[in-house]
């Protein structure tokens, strides 16, 4: 069996563990593909229509303004021909695997890393959209470009002075109620999912009005854990309880940005309030512009080839993704201090 055939590579990636993707899974569970060069859709509750084009003409990641053309994501790896002759991490001293087994294991490891990187790229897009209603994409050979989904500017908030949650007179629970009402007025949906970064959570749980509420509600069906022990399947997201019908999560993840800097997915003191279903969040994928992919639309396409002299095998994973909130006014983001 040729472990580097397109069919086998696709099966290997399909069977790999799904990487952490809390925001994607929570707010963008839907999938849309298009075997045309374009993905057409209307954004609810926004005046401008946006038409993202998915066309992998350049290596890297880009969404160009005028027309919203989405370039492909490409992850190209040099697959070392010497791998079969080296003991792998975790293998017994002296080696207990055959050269073929080492090669297959290294292949799965490399594909897993490529899949992780693709998921992380989509998760970054999701975070940007939830925070700002926009996503900024850049890459080699083209300028940084903003794709604006037309969220109402009032749904991006920054609390100042005595209104910050660390202020003596602040009332975070009142803020959540007011923000939920604002979302319902603008989008017609009920927002009940709250996601905070760790700094925002520390301020929230220490707020005098929140502590007073917890004392008042002790022994009732409402629950909130100052030291949460309930976790989601995501290792970097923690479910910390509920107040009223608000479900509260703490999310702490980071990534290496395009300039090589370690960056928090959610900046310090960030609070997101949204409707999981009302946002109609969708991961859109366009056709892969590759003859071996038959120009079909899928989340990713993998292929491999050999250069003969010197002997080098290449692995390439391609995707044409764009994360889309069909109802952008169904989510709000606030910086609370």
Could you describe the 3D structure shown?
- This protein is of the alpha+beta class.
- The chain has helices spanning 6-14, 22-27, 99-132, 172-187, 198-206, 208-217, and strands at residues 30-34, 53-54, 63-64, 69-70, 73-79, 134-139, 142-148, 156-158, 193-196, 223-224, 237-243, 246-251, 254-256, 262-264, 270-274, 281-286, 301-307, 312-319, 321-325, 331-335.
- The strands form six sheets. Strands 8-20-15-9-12-11-10 form a seven-stranded mixed sheet, sandwiched between helices. The protein has a three-stranded mixed sheet with strand order 1-16-19. The protein has a three-stranded mixed sheet with strand order 2-4-3, with no helix packed on it.
Task: Note the topology.
Elements: H1 6-14, H2 22-27, E1 30-34, E2 53-54, E3 63-64, E4 69-70, E5 73-79, H3 99-132, E6 134-139, E7 142-148, E8 156-158, H4 172-187, E9 193-196, H5 198-206, H6 208-217, E10 223-224, E11 237-243, E12 246-251, E13 254-256, E14 262-264, E15 270-274, E16 281-286, E17 301-307, E18 312-319, E19 321-325, E20 331-335
Parallel strand pairs: 1-16, 2-4, 8-20, 9-12
Antiparallel strand pairs: 3-4, 5-18, 6-7, 9-15, 10-11, 11-12, 13-14, 15-20, 16-19, 17-18
- β-strand percent reads 25-35%
Helix content: 10-25%
Number of strands: 20
Quickly count the helices. Answer: 6
Uncertain spans, ≥5 residues at pLDDT below 50? 45-69, 227-232
Distance between the termini: 58 Å
SSE sequence, one letter per element: HHEEEEEHEEEHEHHEEEEEEEEEEE
Structural class: alpha+beta
Radius of gyration: 23 Å
Task: Order the strands across the largest sheet as they lie in space.
Answer: 8-20-15-9-12-11-10
- Sheet having the most strands: 7 strands, mixed
Rounded average pLDDT: 78
Outline: elongated
């Amino acid at each position: 069996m040729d472990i580097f055939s397109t069919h086998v590579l696709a099966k290997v990636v399909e069977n790999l563990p799904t990487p952490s993707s809390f925001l994607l899974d929570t707010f963008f569970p839907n999938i849309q593909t298009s075997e045309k060069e374009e993905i057409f859709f209307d954004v609810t509750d926004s005046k401008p229509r946006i038409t993202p084009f998915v066309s992998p003409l350049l290596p890297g990641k880009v969404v160009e303004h005028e027309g919203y053309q989405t370039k492909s994501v490409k992850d190209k790896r040099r697959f070392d021909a010497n791998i079969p002759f080296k003991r792998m991490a975790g293998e017994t001293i002296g080696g207990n695997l055959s050269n073929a087994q080492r090669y297959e294991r290294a292949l799965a490891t490399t594909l897993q890393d490529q899949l992780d990187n693709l998921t992380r790229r989509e998760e970054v897009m999701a975070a940007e959209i939830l925070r700002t209603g926009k996503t900024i994409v850049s890459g080699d050979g083209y300028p940084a470009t903003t794709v604006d989904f037309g969220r109402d500017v009032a749904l991006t908030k920054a609390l100042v002075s005595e209104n910050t949650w660390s202020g003596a007179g602040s009332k975070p629970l009142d803020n959540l109620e007011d923000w939920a009402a604002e979302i319902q007025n603008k989008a017609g949906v009920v927002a009940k999912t709250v996601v905070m970064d760790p700094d925002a959570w520390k301020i929230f749980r220490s707020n005098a009005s929140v502590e007073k509420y917890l004392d008042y509600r002790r022994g009732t069906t409402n629950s909130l854990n100052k030291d949460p022990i309930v976790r989601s399947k995501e290792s970097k997201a923690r479910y910390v309880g509920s107040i009223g019908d608000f479900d509260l999560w703490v999310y702490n993840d980071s990534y290496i940005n395009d300039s090589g800097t370690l960056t928090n997915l959610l900046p310090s003191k960030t609070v997101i309030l949204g409707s999981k279903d009302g946002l109609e969040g969708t991961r859109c994928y366009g056709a892969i512009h590759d003859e071996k992919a038959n120009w079909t639309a899928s989340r990713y396409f993998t292929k491999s080839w050999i250069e003969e002299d010197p002997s080098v095998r290449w692995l390439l994973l391609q995707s044409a993704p764009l994360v889309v909130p069909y109802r952008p006014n169904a989510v709000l983001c606030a910086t609370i201090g």
